[in-house]
Design goal:
GO terms for molecular function: protein kinase activator activity. With 161 residues, this protein is α/β, with parallel strands linked by helices. It is built from six helices and five strands. It has a single domain, classed as 3-Layer(aba) Sandwich (Mannitol-specific EII, Chain A). Helices cover 44% and strands 18% of the residues. It has a five-stranded mixed beta sheet. A hairpin with a 2-residue loop joins strand 2 (64-66) and strand 3 (69-70). Helix 2 packs antiparallel against helix 3 (47-60). The radius of gyration is 14 Å and the shape is globular.
């Protein structure tokens, strides 16, 4: 599955959202709250509204994609400015059950907040493509340094055209 063409710069979105290590919490709500607290959110985004939207999405269908990764995201945009959208990579301190289809516990969350449905689909496509790459999954499994993760994302984006 190739990502959509001419989508947002995933590496830049990760720069905005950050790469966070040692996220703690008991259960999805506490873990997502801990992630949101680490992210420098745009002023227009209420952290409680973001948490509610992500939990509502999880209630519909878990966002785990297998191999220890989940991609929490709201169902609809909570911001309107594309300059405020972000992707945050959050490494959990402890493996957590996220109702994954492969039954593997989740170790990494990749949170997506986008400004439009079109951009959301493009970002989700790019992140999903990355998560299918063994080399990228290995970086996530190893809690690799942020520079290595961003370099891998940039290298992948160069191949997208």
């Amino acid at each position: 599955m190739a990502p959509l063409q001419a989508g947002p710069d995933i590496a830049e979105l990760i720069n905005r959202g950050g790469i966070h290590y040692g996220i703690t919490g008991s259960g999805e709500k506490e873990i997502l709250r801990s992630c949101i607290e680490k992210i420098h959110l745009p002023p227009s985004l209420d952290p409680e509204a973001l948490l509610r939207a992500m939990l509502e999405r999880e209630d519909l269908m878990p966002t785990s994609v297998g191999n220890g990764i989940a991609i929490p995201h709201p169902r609809s945009p909570l911001i309107s400015n594309p300059d405020e959208q972000f992707v945050a990579v959050c490494f959990l301190k402890e493996d957590t059950d996220w109702k994954a289809l492969d039954s593997k516990p989740v170790t990494t969350l990749i949170l997506i907040v986008s400004a439009s449905t079109k951009e959301h689909l493009q970002i989700l496509s790019g992140v999903s493509f990355l998560c299918q790459q063994e080399s990228f999954r290995r970086l996530l499994k190893d809690n690799a340094p942020g520079e290595e993760i961003l370099a891998a994302v940039r290298a992948a984006e160069e191949t997208w055209g």
